[in-house]
Write a structure and sequence with these properties.
mainly beta, Immunoglobulin-like, 32 strands, metal-binding, copper, Laccase, repeat
Length: about 600
């Protein structure tokens, strides 16, 4: 990335920007609205890939219901658990100012919602604008429990691009044959590899090229000449994806609930956890065109065990014309291993950086962290283990393990409960070596488990450099997600990070402001943010396999000096910590009856 210099604003310009922001803030206070939703979560039968099975869904829909509100609104979501096991909901991409109690990750900010009970989340919107999403955050329940969260411009304002005629939510998800919970439990018990998806879906359907799926693809009818805003959510579990629409150009205008400089492109690449806002003009000949996704694999070229499904939905023009046997397939959709295509797209991401949507990159850094992201192994010595070593993953050679099921990190921190976590997550890896070498000694394969968090003072300016490693020849892209914050991606590159030369190429002018971004395979990612949201905030790789294996930890951001800069008090009711997350028993009623008594 080229180093760019900024031109200081004049005093008059600074005053105008300040006044504009004050007006915007006051406008939000006056016009913000309150919304109420009910999520009923239960099992329902679905048939995909020639198999009918029961899956956990919200309001009997897959994907789940869309939430649609305006910037600055408040949303209350009452979640009723009518399923067989406990879970939580996370509001991905939403900052939740001072309100970690409703952020959602299991055993980080709350304990799971037991079956037969309910819990109401208070979702506080602040600066987010565009498309974000919500999903379960317990075990692998987010495979089927997820949906879009659309945040329209504040009332009285509009988009920073021409008003689209309509919008359309497109949700990418993973599909597994068999019972995913049983598959996960069995894999963890045996110490074997975690499941790989059998197909992907677009708005719940795998499309015309998957088994028993011809004719079931999701369809969007469009009118010639209209502009459509595609709100794309990558809710799948473990893969990045290319997306393209046959014979149509795309203009990307938003990423992770923030606007970016428009990118005109024939395709996008999107990581799990990311959301993108994409304009499409329906300006082609009347007909049917495939919207298609294909996995982008950054694994070793010798690794072929990944989902090769070409998943499709159909863009169908309204009108009188002769239908072809199959719609046109996008010739611009890159192939599975096309690293150049992925990089060419990612290099173009820049914040909008206008007076209305300013950039405020921290410059005077007070906390610097250098964090390795690695694949590892742990001894597999528990009963039922079929092998001698478990697959694991780590950050700075610490493989996260959840707190004991009687508490969570937020509760332990807020109530000063000892023994739930350690506050000594390291700022640097324990050993330095050639992290990206073709061959790395077996000695570095091993990691250690821990519940270690990083404590930050309020208002610290933080820079983290994530360093991908090739331990076990396991280097891949790692989409890192930070709860409670957006962060600026000031730089990324390949090889080992050089703290003398690489910062000279940082983009401090218009770096993308995101909540999820990939650490490149055999490379590094530099991010910055200011710690102004007190609470406990989870951060992790958004490949569910890597999260399960331990590539996660949490920040504790201390209170500031005023009530307005301190964690809000907890709600009167939080789900009780009574049920182990990894146990799918059918005697939850007994637990609940005991608790009530």
């Amino acid at each position: 990335m080229k180093h760019q210099k900024t031109c200081p604003l004049s005093t008059t310009d600074q005053l105008l920007v300040f006044l504009f922001l004050i007006v915007q803030f006051l406008s939000l206070l006056v016009q913000a609205e309150v919304h109420y939703y009910d999520f009923v979560v239960r099992e329902k039968n679905y048939t995909r890939l020639c198999e009918t099975k029961s899956i956990l869904v919200v309001n009997d829909s897959f994907p789940g219901p869309e939430i649609r509100v305006h910037k600055g609104d408040t949303v209350y979501v009452n979640v009723h658990n009518q399923g067989d096991y406990a879970f939580t909901i996370h509001w991905h991409g939403i900052k939740q100012p001072r309100n970690p109690w409703s952020d959602g990750p299991s055993y980080i900010t709350q304990c799971p919602i037991p079956p037969g009970t309910n819990f109401t989340y208070e979702v506080l919107l602040s600066i987010e604008e565009g498309t974000v999403w919500w999903h379960a955050h317990s075990d692998w329940t987010r495979a089927t429990v997820h949906g879009a969260f659309v945040i329209l411009p504040a009332i009285g304002t509009t988009f920073p691009f021409p008003q689209p005629d309509e919008d359309e939510v497109l949700v990418i998800a993973s599909w597994y044959t068999g019972d995913i919970k049983e598959l996960i439990d069995e894999s963890i018990q045996n110490g074997t590899d975690l499941p790989h998806s059998d197909a992907y879906t677009l708005n719940g359907q795998p499309g015309d090229f998957c088994a028993c799926s011809n004719g079931t693809a999701y369809r969007r009818v469009v009118d010639y000449g209209k502009t459509y805003l595609l709100r794309i959510v990558n809710g799948n579990m473990n893969a990045e994806h290319f997306f393209a629409v046959a014979e149509h150009s795309l203009t990307v205008v938003g990423l992770d609930g923030a606007y970016i400089k428009p990118i005109n492109t024939a395709y996008i690449v999107i990581s799990p956890g990311q959301t993108m806002d994409v304009l499409l003009v329906a300006n082609q000949s009347l007909g049917q065109y495939y919207m298609a996704i294909r996995q982008y694999s950054s694994e070793n070229i010798a690794v072929t065990r990944f989902d090769h499904a070409n998943v499709t939905a159909i863009l169908e023009y309204r009108g009188d014309y002769t239908y072809e046997t199959f719609p046109v397939f996008p010739s611009t959709l890159p192939m599975y291993l096309d690293k150049a295509a992925a990089l060419n797209f990612t290099y173009q991401l820049r914040s909008l950086a206008t007076p209305e949507y300013p950039v405020n990159v921290p410059l005077d850094i007070t906390t610097r962290m250098y964090i390795t992201a690695s694949m590892n192994v742990l001894p597999c010595d528990h009963a039922g283990c079929e092998i001698t070593e478990n697959i694991a993953s780590s950050l700075n050679n610490v493989s996260w393990v959840d707190t004991k099921p009687t508490t969570n990190v937020l509760e332990a921190y807020y109530r000063n409960i000892s023994g739930a976590y350690e506050s000594n997550f390291p700022d640097q890896p324990p050993l330095f070596y050639n992290f990206t070498a073709d061959s790395i000694a077996d000695y570095y394969d091993y990691t250690a488990q821990g519940t270690k968090v990083k404590v930050l003072n309020y208002n610290e300016s933080v820079e983290i450099v994530f360093q991908g490693t090739n331990v076990m020849d396991g280097s891949v892209n790692h989409p890192m997600h930070l709860h409670g914050y957006s962060f600026y991606v000031v730089g990324y590159g390949f090889g080992n990070f050089d703290n003398e030369t690489d910062p000279k190429g940082y983009n401090l002018v218009d770096p993308p402001k995101v909540t999820t971004f990939g650490v490149p395979k055999r490379g590094w990612l530099a991010i910055r943010f200011k710690a102004t949201n007190p609470g406990v905030w989870f951060w992790h790789c958004h490949f569910e396999r890597h999260l399960t294996w331990g590539m996660d930890t949490a920040f504790i951001v201390k209170n500031g000096g005023t009530p307005e800069t301190s964690i809000r008090e907890p709600p009167t009711y939080m789900p009780p910590c009574i049920i182990p997350l990894n146990s799918r028993v059918h005697s939850y009623g007994e637990f609940i009856e005991e608790k009530i008594e």
